[in-house]
User: Fold this.
Amino acid sequence: MVTIKDIAKACDVSISTVSNVLNGKTNKVSDEIALRIKEEVKRTGYRPNYLARNLRSASTKTIGVIAEDLIVFSSPSMIEGIMRCCEGHGYKVVIENMRLFGRWHGDWLHDEQLFQSALVPVLSKMESMNLDGIIYVGGHEHTVHNLVSSNDLPIVITYALSADNKIPTFRLDDYSGGYDVIKYLTSKGHRRIGIIGGEYENTHTLNRILGAQKAMYEEGILFDPELVEYRQWTKEAGYEGMLSLLNKDITAVFCMSDLIASGAYSALYEKGLMPGRDISVMGYDNQDISYSLTPELTTMALPLEDIGNSAADKLIELIENPTPERIVTTDIRIKSTLIERKSVMKIKAKH
Assistant:
């Protein structure tokens, strides 16, 4: 039996594009593509599965959750927020774990074919369950392609982006996070501030850097690229980055993860320096390690449960109050919260 996915593949377009043409929304695609789709439909004898669509019209009060990987530190808290919201509205939750990091580490991030080999069967399985909607839980902020339901299920995405800008997205407000970190450090008198981040092209890194730059500009501090270490999200990267910054006359360092900060601590101790006394250290994430370090780490707490809760709330809204075009705000960013501990000292500012 020919499916809408077969039509999309033959015409080298997305499933949503085929769906638009079949539903008469040809103003959304070019005449050439619309004609190509119609000819393929005629050639194959494809017929839309109206039975499945009608079956779905009766709500099952069940939501599907597709997780990129449950071992990623951010996933459990977001899913907790999703489940809390769903339980409050009387919805059941079905979870599918793609295990992307567990199977392929980070290779899938740069291999679209590998990624799609995991997404397509899971999405198809979800569609066969007669669900009311789907929440996609990213493990890393990147753009997800072909996240579309052939049954026209509403979809919401967390901690990642969708190539379809009509899918509501809930993610971290990394820009305000970077801004708030620098504002806090400058309020303590620091002006020579080093930064240890993830990879340069990483979305979290870039947005936090942009926020940091804005805060520095407002404080009259010239942004110095020599004080920024673009590395990885590891303890080893924090150790190496801190060693590189030690001879650059900094008084504080902004580490873009608590794990990076733990490496910075190791480098400082190795050189006979005390974090929070000789050089202030700021983390990010508020993971368990942040209060296990000595001194306890000042950091930013991620609003992971809020992200999950907000995503579920939006999906339930789309399920219970559908509109023809599902006009929604599609990119919602939720701010992190500063957690003040012992790793940042107040100094007399040197202008």
